[in-house]
Design brief:
Length: about 230
């Protein structure tokens, strides 16, 4: 587990942040998060670095936060649900579609050891890269591009995570999974938006399983025309 050098120098502030972190982890456990590796990653990655400065005091609260370009930083419980279903392990080759602030990218890199992330907004892609570098995560590569149609070199993936909802999963993404690979997305179905896992078998077929309902902002294909 990487160590992040964002500790405040003031003892009182350190105590305050430590108390916030404990409350943060307890709230995740209360929502059913039991994955020890994931909890450790969420404890160690400083969400305040990735949150908008005006919302830094809410970085350990279980709320979504506004980002530039009209985007949203998902609430920690939503992130834990998605990443938990992804079942990331060390050595996995991971793709994230929708970088946003870079916080989920940092978690995935901490869990897997390396991740590529694609963001349609150039502004967000640049800012996320800078934040990842500031906390010492060099094993995450952020691309400005269309996450629904990744470049050819992004292939043979063990895990793919979509950080926004879709009406259906693009075939171009499913095709990038290797056998025994898994894709996790929030798919809008007749009974509402649900977390859905897609597992590729050794024969190349896909097994789909539906999980809990989750409402998150949609992912949009293509490059943003501005920003």
């Amino acid at each position: 587990m990487p160590s992040f050098s964002t500790e405040p120098h003031d003892a009182e502030e350190r105590d305050r942040q430590a108390a916030q972190t404990v409350a943060f982890l307890l709230s995740l456990r209360a929502r059913g998060v039991r994955d020890t590796a994931l909890l450790r990653a969420m404890e160690s990655v400083p969400r305040n670095v990735f949150a908008p400065p005006r919302c830094a005091d809410l970085s350990r609260a279980d709320v979504s936060l506004p980002l530039p370009c009209g985007q949203t930083m998902l609430a920690p419980s939503a992130i834990a649900l998605l990443v938990g279903h992804l079942k990331v392990a060390k050595g996995h080759k991971v793709l994230e579609v929708g970088t946003g602030s870079g916080y989920v990218t940092a978690l995935l890199a901490t869990l897997a050891g390396g991740v590529a992330s694609i963001e349609r907004y150039r502004t967000l892609a640049i800012a996320a890269s800078e934040r990842l570098a500031s906390v010492g995560i060099g094993q995450a590569h952020v691309l400005h591009g269309d996450g629904f149609d990744p470049p050819p070199e992004i292939d043979g993936l063990d895990r793919i995570l979509l950080t926004g909802s879709v009406s259906s999963v693009p075939a171009a993404l499913l095709a990038r999974l290797k056998p025994e690979g898994r894709l996790v997305a929030v798919v809008t179905l007749q009974d509402g938006a649900r977390v859905v896992t897609f597992d590729r078998t050794q024969t190349g077929a896909f097994q789909e399983e539906r999980h809990a309902q989750l409402r998150i902002p949609p992912l949009v294909p293509g490059l943003a025309r501005s920003l």
